[in-house]
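Data card: per-record layout.
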Amino acid sequence: MAWFILLLAGLFEIAWAIGLKYTEGFTRPWPTLGTVAAMVASFWLLGLALKSLPLGTAYAVWVGVGAVGTAVLGIVLFDEPATVTRLVSLGLIVAGIVGLKLAA
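The structure for this 104-residue chain is written out next.
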């Protein structure tokens, strides 16, 4: 269950990172409110997951899920470049996340 909570925390991290783009420097109230809510949810869920997962592993997985998800959505939503180097690098992050999960 802790791994599911951690994954959910990572998904909320993606939501707030993408939400930052839509706040336009925190000048738009509704996107700002949604972004702050996603931040709170992400940190709260990470805290719950840390009750039973090792800190280093959980934090690395949380950051990795957020980084990969945000980068992929940046490509999809904002037409950021999807170069081979970038995609291979994202694959390496995913491999690291899987490795940390298997080692825990």
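Known properties of this structure: Helices lie at 2-23, 29-49, 55-78, 84-103. The first helix runs from residue 2 to 23.

See the next section for split statistics.
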